[in-house]
Amino acid sequence: MSDEVSRIKIRILIEGLGEAEGELVRFRAPRTVDTIVRKLPIEGRAAVWKEEVYFQISIKMGEEKAKPTVETGAIAFWPMGSAFCVFYGHSQPYSPVSILGKVTNNLEIFKQIKSGTRMRVELLER
Question: How many domains does the chain have?
Answer without folding.
Answer: 1
